Amino acid sequence: ALCDQLETTPAKGSLLKRDITRVLTPGTIIEEGMLTSRRNNWLAAVVIEPGQDNQPLSWGLARADVSTGEFQVTQRTGIDLLHQELTQIEPSEIICGGIDPRLLTQWCPDRMHLTHTASTPFSFPESESTLKNQYKLTTIDGLGLQESPLGIRAAGGLISYLRDTKPLDAAISDEESAVLIPLDMPRSF
After folding, report:
1. Over the stretch 8-51, which tens digit does the pLDDT of each residue have?
2. pTM here?
3. Burial of 7 (0-12, 13-18, 19+ CB in 10 A)
């Protein structure tokens, strides 16, 4: 966590106000000197939904490179396909909320940085609201993600995580940074 001084001059006899202005994680690095050149620094968010009646499980994946603004979302079926996708993109960090830990070894490749978060930001209503706020929309229908409810949940969880870690300049106020996360409109992949 990065802590900054929030005041320039304290009141007489009082301490300067300080607060956490950013949480540095592998997927939220934006400093050029800390990034590997010619390689995306993917932050991935995963949502898994168990299959019904012997059907394979479905999953949603959102991935973003905060340093370039790329933002991609998908939804597919089959745990092996999720493992393969994560192995291929090699995310710097994977975030998930409320996923059964017994499935972890089946879908998460070895040596990947996994961050468990609260499941609330990954709920559909919360994710829908987060996406509308991020892109200043009244409805998310125009994003082209109607066929990807799990992808929508992953995208909302990812943006919520970025808001919590504040990867932007500390000079931006909390209200502004909640809207100014530099991500392109999500596209399906």
Report:
1. 776 677 777 777 766 767 666 666 666 566 677 899 999 999 88
2. 0.80
3. exposed
